Structure formats: C-alpha cells, structure tokens
C-alpha cells in the first residue's frame, strides 16, 4: 500500500468535506492511503500572499512542507491553489540556494528545516499516473453511459508550465481520459481554458467580475449540453456551485443549475461509492438531476 500526506487546505474541510471523504475512500479502493498532516496552516494562497510578500509566503509554505518531510511522505491535495503554492515553493527552494538559506533561517526559529525530501503531487496525478484510466475502468460498477461532462481544469494545475510541467497546458487531456474511463462523455465547449472567476483575489475584491466570468463559463457548458461540470479544484468547485446560486439570486430567477461534482466524486459514483457519503446532497446546486440520469 502506498501512502501520501494529505494536505487538506482550508476549503475542502470547511466547505466540501464530502470531497475529502470521496478522495480518501476512492484512493483506498486502489490501496492508496492518505495520512492527515497535523499542524498545517493555510498554504498560503499563491496569488494573494505570494504577490505581496514572497519571503513570508515561502516561509509558511515551506513550514507546511516540512510536516510531510517529517512524515516521510509526498504531499497530495484537492485544491489547485494549495497545489500552486506548495509545488511552486518546493520548486523555488530546490533551485534557489540563496532563498533556501533565508527561508531556513526563518524556519530555524521554530525548530524546523526544509530539506526538499517531499514532492507535491495533485490528486488528479495520482488518479492518472499511479492508478491510471484502465484500472479505474476495470473497477466501474455503475457506468456513466450517456452522461455529458464539461471538464474544467482551473488555472493553477497546469500553469505556469515552466514550473508545473504537467503536459500541454493549452490542450490537456487528463480529465477527459478519466471521464471516459468511467463511461461518461467529455464535451468541448467555448472558453474552456478560462478562469472560473474565483482565483487571484477576484472573488474577494470584485465579486461582480467573478460572477460574470462564472456565468460565461456556465453558459458555454450549457450550450454544449453538459449534464455536469467536473473539476480537480475545490475552489473552482465552490465558485461554480456557490456562484450559480449567487447569480440566480442576483437575477431573481432559477436560471443556472448545472450540477458541479469534484473528479473524485464523479469517479466515485461510477465505482459504487455512496452519493451521501460523498456529500453530494450538500451542494448548493442540486445534483439530483445528474443522479437521476445515472441511476435511471
């Protein structure tokens, strides 16, 4: 059995604990165990903290990484923002000796040292590389035949490509291949690579701009006749799920109601995991239309 240190982040346990459950249960089906990291803080957010104070951002990120190093595990996570921070901080500290010395100087004050012995791996990479679409397909008990899925990668999983190096950032296929592995059909749609609207402080600072970006994305997915949207990022999930609700409230009409499911939840449905255990009943946009189509 392989093991990873699970960096929960802020949004997953507080907004979508069902994603946490789905991810743990799904990976366990393939003999991959997630161990909680004790004592972590916010990653902290890449576009906000990192833009204003690089040293502080790196120090906090490095402290989180040292927890996994003490565990002797590589890190995995379910948020693109957390992935961006921890993976990029790890990359910087492994390639910049001056910054490494500075950051370890700060960490020494709390009895810690970044050693560079743990890697940062997104959960979608575990699904695709460690497990693979073929093994996932072999475990399907409820094929998602006829289900059309709009795949949304989010900004931080693939970019900047010079640091991430996770395939073609302009034409990725990892999500699509995983969707196909469970019998569903990925749909192409307009502005597929556009941000969901949440990241970079946009949601916090310019909510109207954020919601307009979300609306455009959902409109494009609806035009492609998607039954749901899937993503590997809990912040994108939150923006699509909560964002549609906010747009509807703003319009005074129930116009947008595209179900939003995390990639481990979607695969979990096909592999027989309980929708309730995965928290699908707690999403703001009802997932029932999708479940009705799957279990009809």
Describe the protein.
This protein is α/β, with parallel strands linked by helices. It has two domains: 2-122, Glutathione S-transferase Yfyf (Class Pi), Chain A, domain 2 (Up-down Bundle); 133-294, Rossmann fold (3-Layer(aba) Sandwich). Helices cover 50% and strands 10% of the residues. It is built from 15 helices and eight strands. It has helices spanning 11-15, 17-28, 49-52, 54-71, 80-95, 97-108, 123-131, 133-138, 161-164, 174-181, 202-205, 207-223, 234-251, 263-270, 288-294, and strands at residues 2-7, 32-36, 75-77, 120-122, 148-151, 185-187, 228-231, 260-262. A four-stranded parallel beta sheet has the order 2-1-3-4. The protein has a four-stranded parallel beta sheet with strand order 6-5-7-8, sandwiched between helices. α13 (234-251) links the parallel β7 (228-231) and β8. The radius of gyration is 19 Å and the shape is globular.
Number of domains: 2
Shape: globular
CATH architecture of the largest domain: 3-Layer(aba) Sandwich
Strand content: 5-15%
Query: Spans with pLDDT under 50 lasting ≥5 residues?
Result: none
Give a quick rundown of the structure.
Helices cover 50% and strands 10% of the residues. It is an alpha/beta fold.
Search tags:
single chain, alpha/beta, Glutathione S-transferase Yfyf (Class Pi), Chain A, domain 2, Rossmann fold, 2 domains, four-stranded parallel sheet, 15 helices
């Amino acid at each position: 059995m392989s093991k990873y240190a699970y960096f929960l982040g802020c949004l997953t346990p507080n907004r979508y604990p069902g994603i946490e459950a789905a991810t743990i249960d799904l990976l366990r089906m393939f003999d991959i165990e997630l161990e909680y990291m004790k004592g972590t803080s916010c990653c902290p957010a890449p576009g906000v903290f990192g833009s204003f104070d690089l040293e502080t951002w790196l120090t906090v990120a490095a402290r989180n990484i040292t927890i996994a190093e003490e565990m002797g595990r590589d890190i995995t996570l379910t948020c693109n923002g957390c992935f961006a921070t921890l993976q990029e901080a790890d990359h910087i500290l492994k390639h910049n000796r001056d910054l490494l010395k500075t950051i370890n100087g700060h960490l020494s004050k709390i009895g810690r040292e970044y050693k560079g012995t743990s890697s940062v791996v997104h959960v979608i990479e575990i699904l695709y590389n460690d497990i693979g679409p073929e093994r996932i397909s072999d475990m399907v008990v409820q094929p998602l035949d006829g289900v059309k899925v709009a795949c949304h990668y989010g900004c931080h999983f693939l970019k900047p490509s010079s640091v991430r190096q996770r395939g073609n950032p302009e034409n990725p296929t990892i999500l699509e291949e995983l969707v196909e592995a469970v019998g569903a059909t990925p749909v192409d749609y307009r502005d597929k690579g556009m941000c969901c609207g949440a990241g970079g402080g946009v949601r916090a600072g310019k909510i109207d701009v954020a919601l307009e970006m979300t609306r455009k994305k959902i409109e494009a997915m609806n035009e492609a006749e998607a039954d749901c949207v899937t993503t590997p990022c809990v912040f994108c999930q939150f923006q699509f799920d909560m964002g549609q609700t906010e747009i509807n409230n703003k319009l005074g009409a129930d116009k947008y109601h595209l179900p939003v499911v995390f990639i481990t939840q979607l695969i979990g449905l096909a592999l027989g995991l309980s929708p309730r255990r995965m928290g699908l009943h707690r999403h703001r946009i009802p997932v029932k239309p999708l479940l009705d189509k799957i279990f009809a």
